[in-house]
Amino acid sequence: MGLSTHVLDTMHGRPAAGMAVALFAVDGDNTARCVKRFVLNQDGRHPDGLLLDAAGLQKGCYRLEFEVADYFRALGVVLPEPNFLGRVRLDFGVAQPGQHYHVPLLVSPWSYSTYRGS
Question: Cα-Cα-Cα-Cα dihedral of 53, 55, 56, 59, to 10°?
Answer without folding.
Answer: 110
